[in-house]
Each structure stands twice: as C-alpha cells, then as structure tokens.
Write a structure and sequence with these properties.
heterodimer, A: mainly alpha, ABC transporter involved in vitamin B12 uptake, BtuC, globular, B: alpha/beta, Rossmann fold, 2 domains, 6-stranded mixed sheet, 10 helices
Chain lengths: ~325, ~250
C-alpha cells in the first residue's frame, strides 16, 4: 500500500521540483544524476544477471559521438541522429556479444572481451582526431536559445524534465524485465547455462536480447549527456574509466534493486563534486582512487550495495503496527 | 518414435560413443546401462542437443534432430534430467518448474506454463505453492524437482539420467515407481540411464548395455542379465562380484 502510493507521489514531486526550486547549480547536479542513473540502470540490466560488461563506456561513446558527428558534419538533427547512434551501438553490441555467447565466453573472459571493446572505441575516437577532436574533446555546433530541432535548450528546467522522463523509462524497462519470464531465464542462465538450455531456454538469444537492450539504453544516455553538456571527450563518455565507474556505482548502490543504480549515481556524483569543491584541481583523479578503495570495501562487506542491504533489513524487520496474525499469513503455505 | 543409427562421438582422439544404433518404441521404458565412462551420458547429451554427434543420425518422429540446439529439441518434445540435479537456486521451486513449462513449450503462454508447472509438481509430489525455496530440498527432493522440470516441458520422450544416485533403498523404489507412473498415466516414453541394475530391471521393458562406447547387448531384462558378455564386462565374472558392485553403487 505504502509503496503503491509512494511512487506516484514521488514522481509528481520530482516533476514539480524545477518549478518550485530554481537554483541552476543544484538543477545541473540533478540532471547529471538523472542521466548517469539511467546509464547505470542500463548497465545493471546485464550486470544483475552476472553479465559483467566493462564495455559500456564504448556504447556510451558511440551514442554521444555518432549523434554529435552527424549534427556537425551532415546537419542531421539529433532526433534522427540519436536513433542512428542507437542502431550503431546495437550493431556493435551484436558483433561483440554474438561470438561471445555462441562460443560460451563467460565470466572473467567476457569481462575481458568487453574491456577490449571500451579500449577500441577510445582508440578510434582519439585516432580520428581530425573529425572527433581526439582527446581534446568535441563540441556539437551551438544554435541560439531553445531549439527543438537541434535538441538544444538553454533552460535547465527542460533538460531536467527530459532527463527525468528518460530515467523513469529506464526504471520501467527494468521493472518490465523484472516481471517477465526473461528474468527467470536470465537468472537460470547465470547459474547454469546447460540446465537453462535443458529447460528449453534459447540461451544465446536471451543473452543477446538483454545485451542489446542494455547497449541501446547506454547509447541513449551518452547521446543525452552530449546534448546536455554540449561537450564530450573520450574521458567523460567513453573509455575504460567510464565503464569502471558504471560498475562501481551500481555495486555501491545495489545491483539487484531497481533504484540501486540511482543511489549509486547520487553517491558517485556527490563524491566527485565534493572532492572538486573542497580540493579543487589538486584532487583531480582522486575520485577514482576513492572509488577503487570503496569498491573493494563494498564487495567484501556490502555486496548487495547500500540500497539493497537497506531494503533487506527493512523487509526482515516485521512492521511494528501489524497484527501478529496477519504477520504469519504471508509466511504460511498458500492454500 | 526414436531411431538412432550409427551414432558416433569423438572428443579429440578419444571415441566416447562408436557406431551405436537403437530404436525406442512409443510408450516403452528403455533402460540404458553400462559402467562409468561407457558413453551413456554422452548419448544423452547428443539426444538432448547439448553437443552435436560426430556422425550418425537421430530421427525423432520422422525428423532428423541430430545437431539441433537444445531448446529446439525440447520444443519438439524431448525432455531430460541431469545425473546430478541442477536446480536454479535463485528461483523458487515453482519458478524453476514454471520456467521449464514456459520455455519448454515454445515460450509464449504463461498461463499454460503455470498449469504445466502445477501438474508436474503435483505428479512428483512437491509443494505447488509459490514460496517454497530450493534450499529446503534434500537429495530426493532435488531429484523430484529435476523430474518436474523435465515434465513441465511437455515431453513425449523423457531422458532420465541416473535418477537414483544418492537415494536410499526406499526412495529408490519410490522413484522407480514414479517413472512407471509417468509412463502409464502421461503416456510418456522413457529412456532411463542408471548404474543400479536391480531397481531398473524391475521397471523397464527393454535394456541396452553399453561398454567402452559400444552396444554389447540389448533385449528383455531377463535375457540381458543372463547374457555372458554383459556379466563379463559389466557385472564382473561371478555372482558375488555382482552383488558387491550393486551394494557399492548403492552407497
């Protein structure tokens, strides 16, 4: 009952927020949190089933760079450019993942293959610096004011609402997968591929499907980030650092719960901002160091992440107001 | 129903199954026995699509199925259990069977999968509620779950792989009766691979004996157990050794 009500109330509150509270810096942080939450949710779509990808920085980079390059060089509106970028990322996911799944490259080996994918996308971006600006970064050409065709807005409120909508879509997709038979199939596959196949699951197809969904979502996050920030560089939307950041944030927040990646995004972004504000340029790169240490601590002491562990604790504790009889009912056998 | 001809499986230079042919008729229980490493499980793995045969043909209901991927073979109506139960521990008992019911029957209809799961669980005698966890099951319970998963896929032919290992005598008898009940009530044809001869001989219609990947004998249980070739390679050279081996296997 509580959760039923909490969702619509929370969503309405989030939509109303920018009309009440207009501090641009805080809105900026919120937008970034929403975009990265969406990216992390995309990663966790695979990660929760043991498909640990270190290549998602690659998909994010494809989403961002393809959109920006099409706009600058061919004048293609992001409304068309983003779908093209998604197709590119989806194709890339298929090309990399199909051989892996077909020849049963799993676990550490799968992580290594996807790590290479991150590296390759990064190399391609830096190697084609004449078009992409290389490691110096790249800026989509700016139009004036709010321009719907160019998907460029001066108004932070518009961006906030776009990011909010996309983030909610991400949660809905997560929820949809969670409720579908595909989740059972993926859980089964992550435990024992042969046994899953013996239950009739088309193992390769199920893994490919979740991988492509995850890659498309990640590429969309990259494109959004590009359109919002109006500046992308291999370090911020692509490469191994971004991939690792995704793993870290999701592990910290909680890999098996819908809002875990969002909690992870809040923590990582606030940590980065905190270090930037209090230590300035002296602390560049410190966040990665802190991530590394925290990651080790979390995997050892809190493998379900902050939100996952909290929810588990709440569920275990019986609600104080509940009557003793009604408590026993859900635990007993169904008639 | 099933016609296997000249089946061969090589792993590198090692031939696990060489030139095995047999037939299974609608509604019978065929026992498949042989010592460890004789190729029983390898034949099962080829029938169920876990790996393709190196040579030979497997024809099921008039269609060649050799080399098809496992999910396609299951959708055609061949279900299997594993020698060592392989439950999905992150799913509940019901979800385990529901999964098999859903994907085993083509992956379209959840209501039908739920129905199949309930029927399969009731058949093997496991709880049909939605909460019970796999972790609460013992060895016998896990074997039942394995069987329920296979049944939920809606098989016409069931491949039961050494389903009695690790059970006590009473549980073994129950499991053997279960297989017969599955055949009698559901009309499912069964190939049963087993180490333990005593119980198997009581239930099966026909027995096939393998040794070193080759078929050495086939026929009625009574005829096969008195076949000197079988006694020599599988049961040992005299009756005492036979009983000792059976007792060993039971442990």
């Amino acid at each position: 009952m509580n959760a039923r009500l909490a969702w619509p109330v929370g969503v309405v509150a989030l939509i109303a927020l920018p009309f009440v509270y207009r501090d641009p810096y805080h809105l900026h942080i919120l937008i970034l949190i929403l975009i990265w939450s969406f990216a992390y949710t995309s990663w966790s779509m695979m990660g929760r089933f043991g498909l640990v990808s270190l290549g998602h920085g690659g998909f994010m980079g494809v989403g961002a760079y393809v959109t920006a390059l099409l706009w600058n060089h061919l004048g293609v509106s992001p409304w068309i450019g983003i779908p093209i970028a998604l197709v590119c990322a989806g194709t890339l996911a298929l090309v990399v993942a199909y051989p892996c799944f077909r020849f049963r490259i799993t676990g550490h080996y799968f992580a290594l293959v996807t790590l290479a994918l991150s590296g390759i996308v990064l190399q391609v971006i830096t190697a084609t610096r004449d078009w992409t600006g290389g490691s110096l970064g790249y800026t989509p050409e700016r139009t004036k004011g709010n321009n719907i065709v160019a998907l460029q807005f001066d108004d932070k409120t518009v961006w906030y609402l776009i990011a909010l909508a996309v983030w909610l879509c991400g949660l809905l997709i997560w929820h949809w997968v969670d409720r579908s038979m595909s989740r059972y199939a993926m859980e089964a596959i992550s435990e024992d591929e042969d046994a899953a196949a013996a239950a009739g699951v088309n193992v390769t197809f199920e893994k490919l499907r979740i991988t492509v969904i995850s890659a498309l979502m990640t590429a969309l996050a990259g494109a959004l980030y590009c359109q919002y920030q109006m500046f992308i560089s291999p370090d911020t939307v692509s490469g191994i650092a971004v991939s690792l950041q995704m793993v870290f944030a999701v592990v910290v927040g909680g890999i098996y719960v819908a809002l875990g990646p969002t909690v992870g995004a809040i923590i990582t972004l606030l940590l980065a901002e905190f270090l930037r504000i209090f230590f300035g340029t002296k602390a560049v790169g410190w966040d990665n160091l802190v991530y590394g240490v925290l990651l080790v601590l979390f995997i050892i002491f809190l493998p379900k992440g902050i939100l996952g562990s909290l929810l588990e604790r709440v569920r275990r504790r019986p609600p104080p107001a509940a009557m003793p009889q009604s408590q026993a009912a859900p635990l007993g056998r169904a008639p | 129903m099933l016609v296997v001809e000249g089946l061969v499986k090589r792993f590198g230079g090692f031939t696990a199954v060489s030139n095995v042919s047999f037939k299974v008729d609608q509604g019978e229980i065929l026992g498949l026995i042989g010592p460890n490493g004789s190729g029983k499980s390898t034949i099962f793995n080829m029938l169920s699509g876990t790996f393709p045969p190196s040579a030979g043909s497997i024809v099921f209901e008039g269609h060649e199925i050799g080399g098809l991927p496992p999910h396609r073979i299951i959708n055609r109506g061949i279900g299997r259990t594993f020698q060592i139960p392989r439950p999905f521990r992150r799913l509940t008992i019901f979800e385990n069977v529901e999964l098999a019911g859903y994907y085993g029957q083509g992956g379209h209809n959840r209501a039908r999968a739920d129905e199949a799961a309930e029927r399969a669980l009731a058949m093997v005698g496991l709880p049909t509620d939605r909460q019970s966890l796999v972790d609460g099951l013992g060895a016998a319970g896990l074997k039942k779950l394995e069987l329920a998963k296979a049944l939920a896929t809606g098989p016409k032919l069931l491949l039961a792989d050494e389903s009695l290992g690790g059970l006590d005598e009473h549980e073994m008898d129950q499991a053997a009766d279960m297989l017969r009940k599955i055949r009698d009530e559901l009309g499912i044809t069964i190939i049963w691979v087993e180490h333990i001869m005593g119980v198997l001989m009581r239930v099966v219609d026909r027995v096939m004996v393998l040794d070193h990947g080759e078929k050495i004998s086939e026929g009625l249980p009574s005829a096969v157990s008195s076949d000197p070739k079988v006694i020599e390679v599988y049961l040992g050279t005299d009756a005492d050794a036979t009983q000792a081996a059976a007792a060993e296997a039971r442990r």
